[in-house]
Amino acid sequence: MKLNLFVILFCLTPAFCHEVSTESICALNSCTTPSPLFSSIVKLCEESKGLSMRGRCCVQLSDNSIIVGVDLSFCNISSIGRMLTIQAPKLQHVNLTNNPLLTISDETFRGLHNLTTLSLPPSVSCPGNHSWFNSSWQPWNKVVQHRNTIICSNQTDTCGKLHSQNYTCPEHSTCHNDGPGLFDCACHKGWGGYKCLRMTGGIPTVPIVCGSFGSSIVISALVWWTQRRHVIS
C-alpha cells in the first residue's frame, strides 16, 4: 500500500509523470539519463553492424531517420499514444520497462508490422488479445515473464488466423497485418469507400465503349433513314 501511494504521489508531480506528445522519442525530456548500458536495445546496437545509438534510439548508420529500436526505460512515461508508429514505423525492438504507471492500448502499436520484441513492465500485458479470437490463439509467438519485465516476441499472423476462421475481407480488398493482433482490409487500387464498394480511380471502360457503340448505331440509322427518305422523294 505504501508503494502504491508513493507511485501515485510520484506521478502527481508533472516533472515525474510524462505523457509523450510531439517530442522526439529519441530525446524525451523525461528521460533524464542515457539508456542503461545493460539495456537490450543498447546491446543490439553495439553488436549489430550498421546500427548506432542516437539518444534513446537505435538507428541505421546509412539513414539515421530509420529507427530500428527505442529504449524508453526509466523515463517515467504514463502514456505514449501513437508516437511510435508516427515517428518510427519501421521499429523492430521497443523497451518500455521500469515505467510503473505506463498504460498502453492495441492502437499504441498499430502499423508496427516489423515489431519483433516488446519489453513491458510486469503490470502491463502484451497487446493484441481480442475476445473475438478463441483462447487458443495468441498475438505473440512467445511471451516470457520475469520479475521486473514481460517480453513479447514475434507477432503471429493475424490475417492467417482470420482466414482459418473463414473470415475474409470485403470484395476488392486484401487483408494486411497491422500490428500485434491487428489487421487492415486495404482496398485494391481504384476502389475505396465503405467496404471498398466505390470506384475511385479510372473511367469504367466497358460502359463507355458500349454506350458510344450504341450511340453510333442510332446516329447512323437516323442518317440512313433521312437520306433514304430524300431518295424516295
The number of helices is 5
Radius of gyration using CA atoms only: 28 Å
Stretches with pLDDT under 50, minimum 5 residues? 1-16, 204-214
Categorize the overall geometry: globular
Distance between the termini: 110 Å
Residue share in helix: 25-40%
Give the beta-strand count.
13
Structural class: alpha/beta
- Overall pLDDT confidence: 82
Q: How many strands, which pairing sense, and closed or not: the largest β-sheet?
A: 7 strands, mixed
Oligomer: single chain
Order of helices and strands: HEHEEEEHEEEEHEEEEH
Strand content: 15-25%
Reading side by side through the largest sheet, how are the strands ordered?
A: 2-3-4-6-7-9-8
Detailed description of the structure:
The protein has 233 residues and is an alpha/beta fold. It has a domain at 18-168. It contains five helices and 13 strands. The chain has helices at 2-12, 40-47, 83-87, 158-164, 205-232, and strands at 18-19, 51-54, 57-60, 67-71, 77-79, 93-95, 117-120, 140-145, 150-155, 173-177, 183-187, 191-192, 198-199. The strands form four sheets. A seven-stranded mixed sheet has the order 2-3-4-6-7-9-8, with helices on one face. It has a two-stranded parallel ribbon with strand order 1-5. Strands 10-11 form a two-stranded antiparallel ribbon. Strand 3 and strand 4 form a beta hairpin. Mean pLDDT is 82; it is low at 1-16 and 204-214. Residues 155-197 form the EGF-like domain.
